[in-house]
Design brief:
The protein has 51 residues and is low in regular secondary structure. The chain has one helix and two strands, in the order αββ. The longest helix has 6 residues. The protein is elongated and about 45 Å long. The model has no long low-confidence stretch (mean pLDDT 75).
Length: 51
């Protein structure tokens, strides 16, 4: 599969460094009776949950 012509094949070092501070957080959610997500209250980024 070829990359889109307007995007580079791999990100530049500068772009990678610009996003180095980003972190991914996952949190369980439930569904309401009408089918919409109930994400609840966000967990603080400093909280470590056990698996």
């Amino acid at each position: 599969m070829q990359p889109h012509p307007s995007s580079p094949a791999e990100p530049s070092r500068q772009a990678a460094q610009a996003h180095a501070h980003r972190r991914t957080h996952l949190q369980a959610c439930a569904w309401t009776s009408d089918g919409t997500p109930d994400i609840g209250v966000p967990v603080a980024g400093t909280v470590k949950e056990s698996a």
